[in-house]
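Summary for the funding panel

The consortium committed to producing paired sequence-structure records for every protein in the target list. Below we show the first two records in order, beginning with the earlier of the two.
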Amino acid sequence: MSAVKNVLASVALACAFVSAQAQVNTNLTYSLALTDGQMTGRFYDGQPCDLESGTPDNRFRTMPITVTTAGDYEFVDQRESPTIQDGTLGIYSGVFSSTSLATNCVASVDDGATFTLAAGTYTLVMTSYGGTNGEGGDLPGSFRYTIDGPAAVRLGAQPVTPPPVTAVPTLSEWTLMLLALSAAGLGASRLRRKS
């Protein structure tokens, strides 16, 4: 009888081991500045998205992410550190529009939530909770999330906000031709005087 119990216990342990999925951790760190893209609103935990539009005045950055293995992914805000601010995330399948937050939004994260995601590429919208003038006013600031799932999430490059373009004044085509003609005339008159 004890041999049968040992065999059953071994089978149960093997089944539990096979059914348990190893979780892989991906760290996401980002920073926001007052020069980043502007949006009015923030994300709460939800699938589909739970959005608040209208407040606060906020900034955002986008990043492509690739989910290689379909499954449940847990997103957790790591704001416990005094140097890390309270962030929010939007997960989009397709193009993100800062004027239409609900369009293409698959899921949204505030403090932490678990979502079932299909394999594929998504647009991650990274923003803050407090914005520039909301509770806490956490911009500019640094933010951090961990993403746990059945496989690592590949993070694309964060776009770098380019410095503002400054116009350089140039002379028009006609002005350059008149300037060249004047220089030629001045040179010709000097040559005549020398000879």
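The next record, for a separate protein in the list, is shown here:
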Amino acid sequence: MKKIIVATAFALIAGVTLMSAAMASPWHDGEQHKTISREFTVQPNTAFSLDSGVGEVQFRYHDKNTVEVQLVIESDDDSWLTDGDIEDIELTVDQTADELALSTNEQEDVKFTWTITMPQMSNVDIDFGVGEISGDIRLTDVDIDLGVGEIDLHLLGGDVGRVEANAGIGDTKIRGINSENTRAMISSQSESHSNGAATVRADVGVGDITLDFDQR
């Protein structure tokens, strides 16, 4: 009987210890996260590209020769990932004199939240799986592919040329410039043609696109 009582006491102590450790851990709520912050010096002729999976990206404009990136990586409550797995996910950077390319090594059940502050680039190329792309981009050549989600961008500047927005299932809008919209069953296409140099194309498989032009 004494042995049983001692064993039970040890089990209770172990249980309390594990519970306390879980409550003290930053992962006790089932959601893991880490933040990566980087800054890159760029030139006016630098092209920018982003390739990411599930999450959100917000663009901000500033008149400096740097691209500032904050990336928050999170796993959801149902994920089997450990904190070690989250720590293994890194921001991959490929930078040359005329290109800055950002990407991540993908894992399931992980959300990437990007905040990117940058000047006018020579062009912007975004390939995103599922999520939302929003914010302000200084007008340049822009090419966006989104699988599922929403694109809501404010494009700053007046050098607008050809603009095209396509949604396989969803809606498209171009604002601030003359445009035409065509709907066919569940798909939508909006386009505009002007005399400027910048070409903007945005495609989403399932979702909505809003391109708002500010030519001031």
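Regarding this second record: The helical segments are 2-24, 83-88. The first strand starts at residue 33 and ends at 41.
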